[in-house]
Amino acid sequence: MNAASAALLAETRRRPGRLLLTGLAVTVATVFAAGALLLGETMRSYLTATSVQDADRGRRRRAARAAARRRPC
């Protein structure tokens, strides 16, 4: 074991609460990162679906207007 590892283990033996807090901080950061990724993916899929629906709606409106212009009164 090198000197750095020995120093780290000695510090852990002296203050075990610090190791618990470090583990908690890592867990919280991991959950936050996972949540941010899920939120980003959800927003991307929602915006993609919404823009496709809006584009279809616009096409249908233009087609209806064009058909109305072609119909005799």
Please describe what this structure looks like.
- The structure is a single chain.
- The mean pLDDT is 82.
- The protein has one domain.
- Helix 1 (3-14) packs across helix 2 (16-70).
- The chain is rod-shaped.
- The protein is mostly helical and 73 residues long.
- The protein has helices at 3-14, 16-70.
Averaged pLDDT, please? 82
How many DSSP E strands? 0
* Separate helix tally: 2
Find the structural class using helix and strand composition: mainly alpha
- Helices and strands, in order, run as HH
Strand content: under 5%
Tell me the count of domains: 1
Largest sheet: none
C-alpha Rg (nearest Å): 30 Å
End-to-end separation in angstroms reads 93 Å
- Anisotropy-based shape: rod-shaped
Q: What is the helix content? A: over 70%
What are the low-pLDDT stretches, counting only 5+ consecutive residues below 50?
A: none
Question: What's this entry about, in short?
Answer:
The protein has 73 residues and is an all-alpha fold. It is built from two helices and no strands.
List the helices and strands and how they pair.
Elements: H1 3-14, H2 16-70
Task: Provide key terms for this protein.
0% strand
